[in-house]
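User: Can you write out an input/output pair for a complex, sequences first and structure second?

Assistant: Here is one pair. Inputs:
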Amino acid sequence: MNHSIQNLPTSSSVSIPIPESARQIAKIFAEEQFNPDKARQIYLNTLSVLVVNTYLQMLDIPTDLENSHSWNAIGRLSADVADLAIKGIGTLECRPVRINANFCPIPAEVWHNRIGYVIVQIDRACKEGKILGFLPQVTSMSVDINQLQSLESLLEHLYRFRLVELRQWLIGTYETRWEPVEKLFAQTGQTGQTDSVMAFRSPRFKGVELNTPEKIHQAIAQLYINSGKGVGRESEQSKCANKSNIDLIVNLLQTIDDEEIRWNLVEILWMIDPNHPLVKARRILDLGVLLVGHPIALMVGILQKLDHTFAILTRLYPMEPKSYLPPGVKLIGLYENGEPFQEIQSRTKDDYIQFKFSAESGEKFSIRVSLEDVIITENFIL
Amino acid sequence: MNELETKIHLLIQETCQHPQGSLERKKGLNQIILQIQQSGKLFGGYYMYNYAEALQETWGFFCRHFCRFDPDKATVFTWLNNYLKYRLKDEWEEYIKHQKNCIPPIIKDNGEVIDPLESLIARPEPPPILEEIHQWLHQQEAQLRRVHVRGRPDINCYVLIQQRLPPEISWSVLAPEYGVAIATLSNFYQRECFPRLLNFGKSQDYI
Protein backbone atom coordinates (compact mmCIF):
# COMPACT_ATOMS: atom_id res chain seq x y z
CA MET A 1 0.00 0.00 0.00
CA ASN A 2 1.17 3.48 -0.79
CA HIS A 3 2.51 5.63 1.96
CA SER A 4 0.38 8.67 1.16
CA ILE A 5 -2.91 6.74 1.37
CA GLN A 6 -2.11 5.65 4.90
CA ASN A 7 -1.60 9.22 6.02
CA LEU A 8 -5.11 10.35 5.14
CA PRO A 9 -7.90 10.43 7.73
CA THR A 10 -9.90 7.22 7.96
CA SER A 11 -12.59 7.96 10.52
CA SER A 12 -14.95 10.08 8.45
CA SER A 13 -18.42 9.65 7.10
CA VAL A 14 -19.47 9.79 3.46
CA SER A 15 -22.51 11.90 2.49
CA ILE A 16 -24.90 10.50 -0.07
CA PRO A 17 -27.58 12.72 -1.66
CA ILE A 18 -31.16 11.40 -1.40
CA PRO A 19 -33.16 12.11 -4.56
CA GLU A 20 -36.93 12.65 -4.65
CA SER A 21 -37.42 9.21 -6.25
CA ALA A 22 -36.03 7.60 -3.07
CA ARG A 23 -38.38 9.60 -0.85
CA GLN A 24 -41.30 8.53 -3.05
CA ILE A 25 -40.45 4.83 -2.60
CA ALA A 26 -40.00 5.37 1.15
CA LYS A 27 -43.41 7.07 1.35
CA ILE A 28 -45.14 4.22 -0.49
CA PHE A 29 -43.52 1.60 1.78
CA ALA A 30 -44.25 3.64 4.91
CA GLU A 31 -47.91 4.23 4.12
CA GLU A 32 -48.55 0.46 3.82
CA GLN A 33 -48.30 0.38 7.61
CA PHE A 34 -51.19 1.08 9.97
CA ASN A 35 -49.12 2.01 12.99
CA PRO A 36 -47.84 5.62 12.60
CA ASP A 37 -44.60 4.90 14.50
CA LYS A 38 -43.90 1.88 12.32
CA ALA A 39 -44.68 3.98 9.22
CA ARG A 40 -42.02 6.52 10.24
CA GLN A 41 -39.54 3.72 10.97
CA ILE A 42 -40.15 2.11 7.56
CA TYR A 43 -39.72 5.51 5.85
CA LEU A 44 -36.29 5.97 7.43
CA ASN A 45 -35.32 2.30 6.96
CA THR A 46 -36.07 2.56 3.24
CA LEU A 47 -34.01 5.74 2.82
CA SER A 48 -31.17 4.22 4.81
CA VAL A 49 -31.11 1.10 2.61
CA LEU A 50 -31.17 3.27 -0.55
CA VAL A 51 -28.31 5.45 0.73
CA VAL A 52 -26.10 2.42 1.39
CA ASN A 53 -27.17 0.95 -1.94
CA THR A 54 -26.01 4.10 -3.75
CA TYR A 55 -22.72 4.14 -1.84
CA LEU A 56 -21.94 0.48 -2.62
CA GLN A 57 -22.83 1.03 -6.28
CA MET A 58 -20.44 3.99 -6.38
CA LEU A 59 -17.71 1.63 -5.19
CA ASP A 60 -18.73 -1.03 -7.72
CA ILE A 61 -19.98 -3.50 -5.11
CA PRO A 62 -23.04 -5.23 -6.61
CA THR A 63 -26.17 -5.30 -4.46
CA ASP A 64 -29.49 -7.13 -4.75
CA LEU A 65 -32.20 -4.77 -3.52
CA GLU A 66 -35.06 -6.85 -4.94
CA ASN A 67 -34.07 -9.85 -2.85
CA SER A 68 -33.74 -7.92 0.39
CA HIS A 69 -36.41 -8.38 3.09
CA SER A 70 -36.76 -4.60 3.33
CA TRP A 71 -38.03 -4.72 -0.26
CA ASN A 72 -40.68 -7.31 0.59
CA ALA A 73 -44.14 -6.24 1.77
CA ILE A 74 -44.46 -9.10 4.28
CA GLY A 75 -40.91 -8.50 5.47
CA ARG A 76 -41.72 -4.86 6.24
CA LEU A 77 -45.05 -5.70 7.87
CA SER A 78 -43.81 -8.45 10.16
CA ALA A 79 -40.39 -7.09 11.16
CA ASP A 80 -38.38 -3.90 11.52
CA VAL A 81 -35.82 -4.65 8.82
CA ALA A 82 -33.44 -2.39 6.88
CA ASP A 83 -31.42 -5.07 5.17
CA LEU A 84 -29.56 -4.90 1.88
CA ALA A 85 -28.41 -8.08 0.15
CA ILE A 86 -24.93 -7.86 -1.36
CA LYS A 87 -24.33 -10.25 -4.23
CA GLY A 88 -22.06 -13.13 -3.35
CA ILE A 89 -21.34 -11.74 0.12
CA GLY A 90 -24.36 -11.67 2.44
CA THR A 91 -26.79 -9.25 4.05
CA LEU A 92 -25.88 -5.87 5.46
CA GLU A 93 -28.27 -4.15 7.90
CA CYS A 94 -28.56 -0.38 7.25
CA ARG A 95 -29.99 1.29 10.39
CA PRO A 96 -31.11 4.93 10.27
CA VAL A 97 -30.59 7.61 12.92
CA ARG A 98 -31.62 11.26 12.88
CA ILE A 99 -29.31 14.24 13.44
CA ASN A 100 -28.05 14.61 17.05
CA ALA A 101 -28.77 10.99 17.99
CA ASN A 102 -25.98 9.38 20.00
CA PHE A 103 -27.40 5.88 20.00
CA CYS A 104 -28.97 3.80 17.26
CA PRO A 105 -31.63 1.22 18.21
CA ILE A 106 -31.06 -2.27 16.74
CA PRO A 107 -34.18 -4.48 16.89
CA ALA A 108 -33.57 -8.07 18.01
CA GLU A 109 -34.96 -9.53 14.78
CA VAL A 110 -31.88 -8.25 12.92
CA TRP A 111 -29.22 -9.54 15.35
CA HIS A 112 -28.76 -12.67 13.25
CA ASN A 113 -28.02 -13.52 9.63
CA ARG A 114 -26.20 -10.26 9.04
CA ILE A 115 -22.62 -9.77 7.92
CA GLY A 116 -22.56 -6.28 9.42
CA TYR A 117 -24.42 -3.14 10.48
CA VAL A 118 -24.08 0.25 8.82
CA ILE A 119 -25.45 3.33 10.56
CA VAL A 120 -26.86 6.11 8.35
CA GLN A 121 -27.69 9.58 9.68
CA ILE A 122 -30.62 11.09 7.80
CA ASP A 123 -31.05 14.86 7.92
CA ARG A 124 -34.26 16.69 8.77
CA ALA A 125 -35.37 17.26 5.18
CA CYS A 126 -34.41 13.67 4.26
CA LYS A 127 -32.25 15.00 1.44
CA GLU A 128 -28.94 13.65 2.60
CA GLY A 129 -27.75 10.44 4.28
CA LYS A 130 -24.42 10.37 6.05
CA ILE A 131 -22.91 6.91 6.38
CA LEU A 132 -21.38 7.18 9.83
CA GLY A 133 -19.65 3.84 10.12
CA PHE A 134 -20.17 0.15 10.69
CA LEU A 135 -20.08 -2.68 13.21
CA PRO A 136 -19.42 -6.32 12.29
CA GLN A 137 -21.85 -7.68 14.94
CA VAL A 138 -24.60 -6.42 17.22
CA THR A 139 -26.42 -8.26 19.98
CA SER A 140 -27.79 -5.38 22.01
CA MET A 141 -30.85 -3.16 21.79
CA SER A 142 -28.83 -0.13 20.75
CA VAL A 143 -25.32 0.87 19.71
CA ASP A 144 -23.27 3.95 20.56
CA ILE A 145 -22.57 5.77 17.31
CA ASN A 146 -19.26 7.01 18.69
CA GLN A 147 -18.04 3.40 18.77
CA LEU A 148 -18.45 2.71 15.08
CA GLN A 149 -15.67 1.45 12.84
CA SER A 150 -14.63 3.32 9.69
CA LEU A 151 -16.02 2.74 6.21
CA GLU A 152 -12.58 1.53 5.24
CA SER A 153 -12.93 -1.37 7.69
CA LEU A 154 -16.40 -2.02 6.26
CA LEU A 155 -14.81 -2.47 2.83
CA GLU A 156 -12.20 -4.83 4.27
CA HIS A 157 -14.92 -6.71 6.13
CA LEU A 158 -17.05 -7.16 2.98
CA TYR A 159 -13.97 -8.34 1.13
CA ARG A 160 -13.43 -11.08 3.71
CA PHE A 161 -17.03 -12.26 3.37
CA ARG A 162 -17.15 -12.51 -0.39
CA LEU A 163 -17.91 -15.89 -1.88
CA VAL A 164 -15.62 -17.64 -4.28
CA GLU A 165 -17.83 -18.71 -7.18
CA LEU A 166 -16.54 -22.17 -8.05
CA ARG A 167 -18.72 -22.52 -11.14
CA GLN A 168 -16.69 -19.72 -12.67
CA TRP A 169 -13.62 -21.95 -12.35
CA LEU A 170 -15.22 -24.51 -14.65
CA ILE A 171 -15.37 -21.90 -17.42
CA GLY A 172 -11.85 -20.71 -16.70
CA THR A 173 -12.58 -17.50 -14.74
CA TYR A 174 -10.69 -17.01 -11.49
CA GLU A 175 -10.04 -14.21 -9.02
CA THR A 176 -6.41 -13.20 -9.24
CA ARG A 177 -5.56 -14.26 -5.69
CA TRP A 178 -6.43 -17.87 -6.59
CA GLU A 179 -3.38 -18.82 -8.56
CA PRO A 180 -2.52 -21.70 -10.87
CA VAL A 181 -0.91 -24.50 -8.90
CA GLU A 182 2.19 -24.66 -11.12
CA LYS A 183 2.88 -20.97 -10.64
CA LEU A 184 2.99 -21.12 -6.89
CA PHE A 185 5.24 -24.16 -6.74
CA ALA A 186 7.49 -22.70 -9.40
CA GLN A 187 7.95 -19.55 -7.28
CA THR A 188 8.97 -21.47 -4.22
CA GLY A 189 11.60 -23.57 -5.99
CA GLN A 190 15.02 -22.23 -6.96
CA THR A 191 15.44 -21.35 -10.61
CA GLY A 192 16.06 -24.50 -12.59
CA GLN A 193 14.90 -26.70 -9.73
CA THR A 194 11.19 -26.41 -10.45
CA ASP A 195 11.19 -29.97 -11.73
CA SER A 196 12.44 -31.36 -8.47
CA VAL A 197 9.81 -29.42 -6.53
CA MET A 198 7.12 -30.80 -8.78
CA ALA A 199 8.62 -34.28 -8.63
CA PHE A 200 8.23 -34.17 -4.87
CA ARG A 201 4.54 -33.56 -5.52
CA SER A 202 4.17 -36.61 -7.79
CA PRO A 203 1.11 -38.55 -6.76
CA ARG A 204 1.67 -42.01 -5.40
CA PHE A 205 -0.41 -44.98 -6.35
CA LYS A 206 -0.26 -48.03 -4.08
CA GLY A 207 3.00 -46.73 -2.64
CA VAL A 208 4.69 -46.24 -6.03
CA GLU A 209 5.72 -42.73 -6.96
CA LEU A 210 4.36 -41.99 -10.44
CA ASN A 211 7.39 -40.30 -11.93
CA THR A 212 7.76 -42.04 -15.31
CA PRO A 213 5.26 -42.61 -18.14
CA GLU A 214 5.62 -46.36 -17.64
CA LYS A 215 4.67 -46.24 -13.98
CA ILE A 216 1.79 -43.92 -14.85
CA HIS A 217 0.62 -46.30 -17.52
CA GLN A 218 0.74 -49.22 -15.10
CA ALA A 219 -1.27 -47.24 -12.55
CA ILE A 220 -3.90 -46.36 -15.15
CA ALA A 221 -4.09 -49.98 -16.22
CA GLN A 222 -4.65 -50.97 -12.58
CA LEU A 223 -7.42 -48.35 -12.29
CA TYR A 224 -9.09 -49.78 -15.40
CA ILE A 225 -8.99 -53.20 -13.84
CA ASN A 226 -10.38 -51.83 -10.56
CA SER A 227 -13.21 -50.19 -12.43
CA GLY A 228 -13.98 -53.49 -14.15
CA LYS A 229 -13.39 -52.09 -17.62
CA GLY A 230 -9.96 -53.43 -18.65
CA VAL A 231 -7.41 -51.34 -20.56
CA GLY A 232 -8.25 -52.35 -24.08
CA ARG A 233 -6.03 -53.04 -27.03
CA GLU A 234 -5.17 -49.49 -28.08
CA SER A 235 -2.99 -48.99 -25.04
CA GLU A 236 -0.65 -51.76 -26.12
CA GLN A 237 0.42 -49.80 -29.19
CA SER A 238 1.62 -46.67 -27.45
CA LYS A 239 2.55 -47.77 -24.01
CA CYS A 240 4.99 -44.97 -23.29
CA ALA A 241 3.31 -41.98 -24.90
CA ASN A 242 1.70 -39.45 -22.55
CA LYS A 243 -0.96 -38.71 -25.10
CA SER A 244 -2.38 -42.16 -24.89
CA ASN A 245 -2.17 -42.04 -21.11
CA ILE A 246 -4.24 -38.84 -21.25
CA ASP A 247 -6.75 -40.45 -23.60
CA LEU A 248 -7.05 -43.46 -21.31
CA ILE A 249 -7.66 -41.27 -18.28
CA VAL A 250 -10.22 -39.08 -20.06
CA ASN A 251 -12.03 -42.10 -21.38
CA LEU A 252 -12.33 -43.67 -17.94
CA LEU A 253 -13.21 -40.37 -16.23
CA GLN A 254 -16.15 -39.91 -18.56
CA THR A 255 -17.61 -43.33 -17.97
CA ILE A 256 -17.22 -44.28 -14.31
CA ASP A 257 -18.66 -42.75 -11.18
CA ASP A 258 -16.50 -44.41 -8.50
CA GLU A 259 -15.19 -41.39 -6.58
CA GLU A 260 -11.90 -42.91 -5.44
CA ILE A 261 -10.93 -44.06 -8.91
CA ARG A 262 -11.97 -40.71 -10.40
CA TRP A 263 -9.77 -38.76 -7.96
CA ASN A 264 -6.84 -41.10 -8.63
CA LEU A 265 -7.24 -40.41 -12.34
CA VAL A 266 -7.55 -36.67 -11.74
CA GLU A 267 -4.32 -36.64 -9.69
CA ILE A 268 -2.46 -38.29 -12.55
CA LEU A 269 -3.97 -35.96 -15.13
CA TRP A 270 -3.03 -32.93 -12.99
CA MET A 271 0.54 -34.10 -13.20
CA ILE A 272 0.80 -34.93 -16.91
CA ASP A 273 -1.60 -32.33 -18.35
CA PRO A 274 -2.58 -29.78 -15.68
CA ASN A 275 -4.53 -27.59 -18.10
CA HIS A 276 -6.68 -30.36 -19.49
CA PRO A 277 -10.26 -28.95 -19.70
CA LEU A 278 -11.67 -31.79 -17.60
CA VAL A 279 -9.51 -31.00 -14.57
CA LYS A 280 -8.33 -27.42 -15.00
CA ALA A 281 -10.72 -26.12 -12.30
CA ARG A 282 -8.05 -26.28 -9.63
CA ARG A 283 -6.40 -23.32 -7.94
CA ILE A 284 -4.24 -22.56 -5.00
CA LEU A 285 -4.37 -19.78 -2.41
CA ASP A 286 -1.19 -18.63 -0.68
CA LEU A 287 -1.91 -18.44 3.06
CA GLY A 288 1.68 -17.57 3.93
CA VAL A 289 0.91 -13.89 4.45
CA LEU A 290 -1.70 -14.71 7.07
CA LEU A 291 -0.02 -17.66 8.77
CA VAL A 292 3.15 -15.72 9.49
CA GLY A 293 6.22 -17.94 9.42
CA HIS A 294 4.33 -20.87 7.90
CA PRO A 295 4.35 -20.96 4.09
CA ILE A 296 1.19 -22.98 3.51
CA ALA A 297 -1.13 -23.05 0.51
CA LEU A 298 -4.76 -24.14 0.25
CA MET A 299 -5.63 -26.00 -2.90
CA VAL A 300 -9.22 -26.45 -4.10
CA GLY A 301 -10.07 -28.58 -7.08
CA ILE A 302 -13.51 -29.29 -8.48
CA LEU A 303 -14.72 -31.96 -10.83
CA GLN A 304 -18.11 -32.28 -12.43
CA LYS A 305 -19.66 -35.68 -11.72
CA LEU A 306 -21.63 -37.81 -14.13
CA ASP A 307 -24.86 -36.95 -12.29
CA HIS A 308 -24.06 -33.19 -12.69
CA THR A 309 -23.27 -32.63 -9.02
CA PHE A 310 -19.70 -31.73 -8.11
CA ALA A 311 -16.82 -33.46 -6.36
CA ILE A 312 -14.53 -31.14 -4.44
CA LEU A 313 -11.03 -31.75 -3.14
CA THR A 314 -9.43 -29.41 -0.60
CA ARG A 315 -5.80 -29.86 0.36
CA LEU A 316 -3.22 -28.02 2.44
CA TYR A 317 0.36 -28.04 1.21
CA PRO A 318 3.61 -26.69 2.57
CA MET A 319 4.94 -24.39 -0.12
CA GLU A 320 8.63 -24.96 0.41
CA PRO A 321 10.24 -27.88 -1.42
CA LYS A 322 10.72 -31.05 0.61
CA SER A 323 9.13 -29.67 3.73
CA TYR A 324 6.22 -30.77 5.91
CA LEU A 325 3.13 -29.07 7.29
CA PRO A 326 3.60 -27.78 10.83
CA PRO A 327 1.86 -30.23 13.17
CA GLY A 328 -1.54 -29.12 14.47
CA VAL A 329 -2.81 -27.29 11.40
CA LYS A 330 -6.52 -27.91 11.00
CA LEU A 331 -8.44 -28.08 7.75
CA ILE A 332 -12.16 -27.80 8.38
CA GLY A 333 -15.18 -27.92 6.09
CA LEU A 334 -18.26 -25.98 7.24
CA TYR A 335 -21.87 -25.97 6.11
CA GLU A 336 -23.44 -22.60 5.28
CA ASN A 337 -24.77 -22.35 8.86
CA GLY A 338 -21.27 -22.71 10.29
CA GLU A 339 -21.60 -26.33 11.48
CA PRO A 340 -18.51 -28.40 10.60
CA PHE A 341 -18.91 -31.43 8.30
CA GLN A 342 -15.22 -32.44 8.10
CA GLU A 343 -12.19 -31.74 10.21
CA ILE A 344 -8.66 -33.05 9.96
CA GLN A 345 -5.45 -32.09 11.66
CA SER A 346 -1.84 -32.46 10.56
CA ARG A 347 0.53 -34.70 12.53
CA THR A 348 4.31 -34.55 12.44
CA LYS A 349 5.74 -35.11 8.96
CA ASP A 350 2.54 -34.76 6.96
CA ASP A 351 3.47 -33.55 3.48
CA TYR A 352 -0.17 -32.61 2.95
CA ILE A 353 -3.63 -33.06 4.48
CA GLN A 354 -6.85 -33.17 2.51
CA PHE A 355 -10.49 -34.14 2.34
CA LYS A 356 -13.02 -34.63 -0.41
CA PHE A 357 -16.75 -34.12 -0.52
CA SER A 358 -19.64 -33.64 -2.91
CA ALA A 359 -21.88 -30.61 -3.36
CA GLU A 360 -24.74 -29.54 -5.55
CA SER A 361 -25.18 -26.52 -7.72
CA GLY A 362 -26.02 -23.41 -5.65
CA GLU A 363 -24.73 -24.93 -2.41
CA LYS A 364 -22.59 -22.77 -0.12
CA PHE A 365 -19.81 -23.97 2.16
CA SER A 366 -16.69 -22.66 3.86
CA ILE A 367 -13.20 -24.00 4.23
CA ARG A 368 -11.37 -23.00 7.39
CA VAL A 369 -7.68 -23.32 8.11
CA SER A 370 -6.51 -22.80 11.66
CA LEU A 371 -3.11 -22.83 13.28
CA GLU A 372 -2.64 -21.70 16.86
CA ASP A 373 -4.54 -18.38 17.16
CA VAL A 374 -4.90 -17.73 13.46
CA ILE A 375 -8.13 -18.71 11.71
CA ILE A 376 -8.63 -18.19 7.99
CA THR A 377 -12.03 -18.83 6.46
CA GLU A 378 -12.80 -18.88 2.75
CA ASN A 379 -16.42 -18.97 1.62
CA PHE A 380 -17.52 -20.75 -1.53
CA ILE A 381 -20.62 -21.16 -3.65
CA LEU A 382 -21.12 -23.69 -6.39
CA MET B 1 -2.81 24.18 -7.86
CA ASN B 2 -2.95 24.10 -4.07
CA GLU B 3 -1.75 21.45 -1.66
CA LEU B 4 -5.14 19.77 -1.23
CA GLU B 5 -5.68 19.51 -4.98
CA THR B 6 -2.23 18.02 -5.44
CA LYS B 7 -2.93 15.52 -2.68
CA ILE B 8 -6.21 14.40 -4.24
CA HIS B 9 -4.67 14.21 -7.71
CA LEU B 10 -1.91 12.01 -6.35
CA LEU B 11 -4.45 9.82 -4.58
CA ILE B 12 -6.42 9.41 -7.83
CA GLN B 13 -3.25 8.44 -9.63
CA GLU B 14 -2.31 5.86 -6.98
CA THR B 15 -5.81 4.40 -6.79
CA CYS B 16 -6.04 3.90 -10.55
CA GLN B 17 -2.92 1.75 -10.46
CA HIS B 18 -4.80 -0.91 -8.50
CA PRO B 19 -6.74 -3.39 -10.64
CA GLN B 20 -10.47 -2.90 -11.08
CA GLY B 21 -12.44 -4.80 -8.44
CA SER B 22 -9.52 -4.89 -5.99
CA LEU B 23 -9.94 -3.98 -2.35
CA GLU B 24 -7.17 -1.36 -2.61
CA ARG B 25 -8.97 0.40 -5.42
CA LYS B 26 -12.24 0.52 -3.46
CA LYS B 27 -10.47 1.85 -0.38
CA GLY B 28 -8.68 4.46 -2.48
CA LEU B 29 -11.92 5.62 -4.10
CA ASN B 30 -13.57 5.82 -0.68
CA GLN B 31 -10.70 8.08 0.47
CA ILE B 32 -10.97 10.27 -2.63
CA ILE B 33 -14.71 10.77 -2.03
CA LEU B 34 -14.05 11.63 1.63
CA GLN B 35 -11.32 14.13 0.73
CA ILE B 36 -13.48 15.85 -1.87
CA GLN B 37 -16.47 16.03 0.50
CA GLN B 38 -14.38 17.33 3.39
CA SER B 39 -12.78 20.04 1.24
CA GLY B 40 -16.15 21.83 1.02
CA LYS B 41 -15.21 22.85 -2.52
CA LEU B 42 -18.04 21.08 -4.30
CA PHE B 43 -20.67 23.46 -5.65
CA GLY B 44 -23.36 23.57 -2.98
CA GLY B 45 -27.06 23.83 -3.67
CA TYR B 46 -28.81 21.95 -0.90
CA TYR B 47 -31.98 24.03 -1.19
CA MET B 48 -32.11 23.93 -4.97
CA TYR B 49 -34.69 21.81 -6.74
CA ASN B 50 -33.16 18.54 -7.91
CA TYR B 51 -29.75 19.26 -6.40
CA ALA B 52 -29.66 15.76 -4.86
CA GLU B 53 -30.48 14.21 -8.26
CA ALA B 54 -27.73 16.19 -10.00
CA LEU B 55 -25.22 15.45 -7.25
CA GLN B 56 -25.99 11.73 -7.30
CA GLU B 57 -25.45 11.67 -11.07
CA THR B 58 -22.20 13.56 -10.61
CA TRP B 59 -20.87 11.07 -8.06
CA GLY B 60 -21.94 8.20 -10.31
CA PHE B 61 -20.05 9.79 -13.20
CA PHE B 62 -16.99 10.45 -11.06
CA CYS B 63 -16.80 6.92 -9.66
CA ARG B 64 -17.09 5.37 -13.13
CA HIS B 65 -14.58 7.67 -14.82
CA PHE B 66 -12.20 8.99 -12.18
CA CYS B 67 -9.27 7.27 -13.85
CA ARG B 68 -9.90 9.38 -16.96
CA PHE B 69 -9.34 12.55 -14.96
CA ASP B 70 -6.48 14.65 -16.38
CA PRO B 71 -4.94 17.11 -13.89
CA ASP B 72 -3.26 19.00 -16.75
CA LYS B 73 -6.64 20.12 -18.05
CA ALA B 74 -8.41 21.16 -14.85
CA THR B 75 -8.38 20.60 -11.10
CA VAL B 76 -10.59 17.82 -9.79
CA PHE B 77 -12.99 20.38 -8.30
CA THR B 78 -13.39 22.25 -11.61
CA TRP B 79 -13.96 18.93 -13.36
CA LEU B 80 -16.63 17.82 -10.88
CA ASN B 81 -18.32 21.22 -10.52
CA ASN B 82 -18.62 21.65 -14.29
CA TYR B 83 -20.33 18.29 -14.55
CA LEU B 84 -22.56 19.08 -11.58
CA LYS B 85 -23.65 22.44 -13.02
CA TYR B 86 -24.54 20.87 -16.36
CA ARG B 87 -26.62 18.26 -14.56
CA LEU B 88 -28.35 20.99 -12.54
CA LYS B 89 -29.14 22.83 -15.76
CA ASP B 90 -30.52 19.64 -17.34
CA GLU B 91 -32.56 18.89 -14.25
CA TRP B 92 -33.88 22.46 -14.16
CA GLU B 93 -34.89 22.36 -17.83
CA GLU B 94 -36.65 19.03 -17.28
CA TYR B 95 -38.43 20.56 -14.35
CA ILE B 96 -39.58 23.64 -16.31
CA LYS B 97 -40.64 21.46 -19.26
CA HIS B 98 -42.70 18.90 -17.36
CA GLN B 99 -43.58 20.41 -14.02
CA LYS B 100 -44.92 16.96 -13.23
CA ASN B 101 -41.82 15.81 -11.38
CA CYS B 102 -42.37 18.75 -9.11
CA ILE B 103 -40.46 18.40 -5.89
CA PRO B 104 -42.25 19.40 -2.74
CA PRO B 105 -40.73 22.42 -0.96
CA ILE B 106 -38.47 21.61 1.98
CA ILE B 107 -38.85 24.90 3.86
CA LYS B 108 -41.98 26.21 5.54
CA ASP B 109 -43.02 29.85 5.16
CA ASN B 110 -41.41 30.60 8.52
CA GLY B 111 -38.06 29.30 7.27
CA GLU B 112 -38.17 26.03 9.22
CA VAL B 113 -37.05 22.89 7.37
CA ILE B 114 -39.92 20.47 6.74
CA ASP B 115 -39.41 16.90 7.98
CA PRO B 116 -41.20 14.56 5.52
CA LEU B 117 -41.92 12.20 8.44
CA GLU B 118 -44.47 14.70 9.74
CA SER B 119 -46.65 14.34 6.65
CA LEU B 120 -46.73 10.53 6.48
CA ILE B 121 -50.19 9.07 6.70
CA ALA B 122 -50.46 5.56 8.11
CA ARG B 123 -53.32 3.38 6.85
CA PRO B 124 -56.43 3.72 8.97
CA GLU B 125 -56.94 -0.07 9.11
CA PRO B 126 -54.64 -3.11 8.80
CA PRO B 127 -53.68 -4.07 5.21
CA PRO B 128 -55.61 -7.05 3.69
CA ILE B 129 -52.36 -9.04 3.56
CA LEU B 130 -52.39 -9.24 7.37
CA GLU B 131 -55.75 -11.00 7.33
CA GLU B 132 -54.40 -13.47 4.76
CA ILE B 133 -51.40 -14.19 6.99
CA HIS B 134 -53.75 -14.92 9.92
CA GLN B 135 -55.76 -17.34 7.74
CA TRP B 136 -52.56 -19.10 6.65
CA LEU B 137 -51.41 -19.31 10.28
CA HIS B 138 -54.74 -20.89 11.24
CA GLN B 139 -54.54 -23.45 8.40
CA GLN B 140 -50.92 -24.33 9.16
CA GLU B 141 -51.27 -24.29 12.95
CA ALA B 142 -50.45 -27.97 13.54
CA GLN B 143 -47.30 -27.88 11.37
CA LEU B 144 -46.11 -24.55 12.70
CA ARG B 145 -46.51 -25.69 16.29
CA ARG B 146 -44.21 -28.61 15.58
CA VAL B 147 -41.29 -26.25 14.84
CA HIS B 148 -40.05 -25.07 18.22
CA VAL B 149 -37.04 -24.04 20.28
CA ARG B 150 -35.20 -27.20 21.40
CA GLY B 151 -36.80 -28.53 24.58
CA ARG B 152 -39.43 -25.77 24.57
CA PRO B 153 -42.52 -26.83 22.56
CA ASP B 154 -44.31 -23.77 23.94
CA ILE B 155 -41.94 -21.48 21.98
CA ASN B 156 -42.98 -22.46 18.47
CA CYS B 157 -43.42 -20.82 15.07
CA TYR B 158 -47.18 -20.59 15.40
CA VAL B 159 -47.22 -18.58 18.61
CA LEU B 160 -44.14 -16.52 17.87
CA ILE B 161 -45.31 -15.42 14.41
CA GLN B 162 -48.64 -14.47 15.94
CA GLN B 163 -46.97 -12.50 18.72
CA ARG B 164 -44.65 -10.69 16.32
CA LEU B 165 -47.28 -9.73 13.74
CA PRO B 166 -48.57 -6.19 14.21
CA PRO B 167 -49.60 -5.07 16.75
CA GLU B 168 -46.51 -6.94 17.92
CA ILE B 169 -45.42 -7.75 21.47
CA SER B 170 -41.90 -6.44 22.03
CA TRP B 171 -38.97 -8.83 22.44
CA SER B 172 -38.20 -7.40 25.86
CA VAL B 173 -41.69 -8.39 27.07
CA LEU B 174 -41.67 -11.83 25.42
CA ALA B 175 -38.22 -12.94 26.60
CA PRO B 176 -38.90 -12.75 30.37
CA GLU B 177 -42.36 -14.27 29.84
CA TYR B 178 -40.76 -17.35 28.27
CA GLY B 179 -37.79 -17.16 30.62
CA VAL B 180 -35.23 -17.19 27.80
CA ALA B 181 -32.77 -14.64 26.39
CA ILE B 182 -33.98 -12.21 23.74
CA ALA B 183 -31.28 -13.54 21.38
CA THR B 184 -32.67 -17.09 21.74
CA LEU B 185 -36.13 -15.91 20.71
CA SER B 186 -35.02 -13.59 17.91
CA ASN B 187 -32.57 -16.15 16.53
CA PHE B 188 -35.32 -18.78 16.39
CA TYR B 189 -37.67 -16.24 14.79
CA GLN B 190 -35.07 -15.22 12.21
CA ARG B 191 -34.08 -18.81 11.37
CA GLU B 192 -37.42 -20.66 11.48
CA CYS B 193 -40.38 -18.27 11.51
CA PHE B 194 -39.54 -15.32 9.27
CA PRO B 195 -38.48 -17.49 6.27
CA ARG B 196 -41.76 -19.48 6.51
CA LEU B 197 -43.72 -16.24 6.55
CA LEU B 198 -41.82 -14.92 3.53
CA ASN B 199 -42.36 -18.20 1.68
CA PHE B 200 -46.07 -17.85 2.25
CA GLY B 201 -45.79 -14.33 0.81
CA LYS B 202 -43.99 -15.72 -2.22
CA SER B 203 -46.74 -18.27 -2.82
CA GLN B 204 -49.28 -15.42 -2.71
CA ASP B 205 -47.25 -13.28 -5.14
CA TYR B 206 -46.59 -10.63 -2.55
CA ILE B 207 -43.02 -10.17 -3.66
